[in-house]
Amino acid sequence: MLQIKQNGEHDTWHDVFLNLPAAVRTCRHEFSFYVHNRVCENYFNCADCVIHKNVERLEASRRIHGWHEKSPEGEVYGVSVPADRLYHRGHTWIKEESDGTYSVGLDDFGARLIGKPDSVDLPDIGSNVEANEPAWRMIKQDAEISLLSPISGIVVETGSPDKGWYLRIKPEGNGEATKHLLKGAEIKRWMMKEIERLQMRLSDKDLGTSIADGGVLLDDLPVAYPDADWRRVYKDMLLQG
Asked: Domain tally for the chain?
């Protein structure tokens, strides 16, 4: 079973964040058109962001007056984006369960990026995981992939790719613990930008043509594009630092 590393044995989230390109640090509120050309400088810590608090107040006022943007259901270029969960920019998600725990999974984009993993290394039940830190690992074609936890808490159950989720976590703290996660109208535009970013990373004309012509993202991209530098792709797209 995976033993979560202690601080100092890997790059901290602050280290990783500071090395992310500006395009990856786009303010979440650009996805829903509240801001333009704003780069997050707050480590995606929306709970302490003045702009986020202002947007929340505006959205609350709109709900009171009977107007709010409906959460999107459906897909983006064949990538499923269910609206019943919150999304981490490292392509993991959480879904609240009836007992107050959260299921944690890999979103459909991340699943297609990895395809069928060669192995999955999950934490022990009872382990503590921290938001933005490695929660579990996979091996795909000799590449080690770290998946970041969307929230902090204690692992109470482990799943599998077949179950559609990997962890169940009893969260720490209160509602502030999920404020950094994407939701509602933000999700589709973020996913579109991620697909565009992947196309640029792979620099593959066939993939670009497939998407531009209304095609869908393939299920197991490493198998379809074996010559790509998948270690670099995972590092960039899954925010591995």
From this structure: 1
